[in-house]
Amino acid sequence: MVLQGTGMLHATPKTFARFGSSLVALPLKVSRASPSKNVGRRQARALASSGETIRVGINGFGRIGRLVLRAALAKPNVEVVAINDPFIENDYIAYMFKYDSTHGVFKGDVVGSSEGLFINGKKIASYSKMNPEEIPWGEAGADYVVESTGVFTTIDKANSHIKGGAKKVIISAPSADAPMFVMGVNEEKYDAKKDNIVSNASCTTNCLAPLAKVVNENFGIVEGLMTTVHATTATQKTVDGPSKKDWRGGRGAAANIIPSSTGAAKAVGKVLPELNGKLTGMAFRVPTADVSVVDLTARLSKPAEYKEIMAALKAASEGPMKGILGYTEDAVVSTDFITDDRSSIIDATAGIQLSPTFVKLVSWYDNEWGYSNRVVDLIMHMAAAE
Questions:
Q1: Neighbours of 53 (CB within 10 A)
Q2: Which fold has domain 14-35+203-368?
Q3: In which pathway does it act (predicted)?
């Protein structure tokens, strides 16, 4: 069982937290800006209650594209009206959506025909355009387009969707130049008047940033190194094959633990400027289907006991970051988090501490499902800000 509290953070200078067998009263820093962090989620709930429908298109029906659709179907005020993928026919789109080896069979009726994709009898238009400018998003009524091909990740390239009739584009990957938002961390900086193309960052940044934010606000991060032990993804090879840019990345995914680069830690500096230049990291790709884990080893500016750090993270998971940040003291393993929709789940009993200012923190994340839910949450936040 993954523990998730119901809220214990109040306007008092202390909060109580249990760690191990000890019950202690700990002073926690409650950021005066913390209540505003819930603004996006409150706006999204208000939008849902208003009955206004957010119409979405998805370009690229791979792992993230399909799971974004599943996540959107769970939101009563979000409607996916169109899908574009030039490489698969509608009957195969229906098959791939319904049957998922990791997250299970979709509980609903799914039919693909020459007219489009039908889910529980409701039609979703389907296109097969190679050029994003040719996708008739405007005709389909898609105001928000999820760019999940992994190809059109810059403002210039993603702007093709705007030319096709979309009003906003959400890139489901890091971007070299598009503003980057991580829900629960910096979504309040979204400017509806000028931010037409945005990035939802990466799954790993979505895990690391909430953790780093809470630790930095309460104890200060002088510097840190992150390692993500990351599940296999579609870019890897089933057996050894050519990979000119990353020779190790071309080795068989099922047979190896593969060291790899990642920009996820450095990207935290884009969503939390106060940590810019203080974090970097790497990845180990491992032969598991889903769920990854972040190891953040950090030097703190304010000495703290491990239980104090855990208390701050637990309080955040029950307060301003509830639904984004999770917390558990159970003896969990990776499969316990398959289809967990939170961005980052702190594993209190897995971390270690060398000194009051040197600590290793561990946090789990479903790199597919958690991230896909944040894409939908970001869309809802953007719509509420209009």
A1: 15
A2: Dihydrodipicolinate Reductase; domain 2 (3.30.360)
A3: Carbohydrate degradation; glycolysis; pyruvate from D-glyceraldehyde 3-phosphate: step 1/5
Residue 58 is predicted with a pLDDT of 99
Delimit the domains of the chain by residue range.
14-35+203-368, 37-201+372-384
Give the global pTM. 0.88
* Contacting residues for 228 by C-beta, under 8 A, at least 6 apart: 204, 207, 208, 262, 264, 281, 282, 283, 284, 292, 293, 294, 295
pLDDT confidence band for 325 (50 / 70 / 90): very high
Please check if 262 is assigned to a binding site: yes
Residue 363 among known ligand-binding residues: no
pLDDT tens digits along 140-176: 999 999 999 999 999 999 999 999 999 999 999 999 9
Give yes or no for a contact between 344 and 371, defined as CB atoms under 8 angstroms apart. no
Query: Helix, strand or coil for residue 328?
Result: strand
SS (H, E, C) 1-41: CCCCCCCCCCCCCEEEEEECCEEEEEECCCCCCHHHHCHHH
Q: Say how far apart CA 325 and CA 347 lie, in whole Å.
A: 11
Task: Please indicate whether residue 207 is annotated as part of the active site.
Answer: no
pLDDT value of residue 160: 97
Structure tokens at 121: 């009898």
- Look at residue 8 in the predicted model and tell me its pLDDT: 31
Find out whether 216 is annotated in a ligand binding site: no
Pick the CATH number of 37-201+372-384 from 3.10.20.90, 3.40.50.720, 3.60.10.10, 3.40.50.300: 3.40.50.720
Nearest CA-CA partner of 268 in 302, 316, 224, 319:
224
In degrees, rounded to 5, the angle at the alpha carbon of residue 215 between the alpha carbons of residues 214 and 219 is 125
Flag whether 64 is marked binding: yes
Q: What DSSP string describes 46-69?
A: HHHHHTPPEEEEEE--SHHHHHHH
Give the active site residue among 71, 169, 203, 312.
203
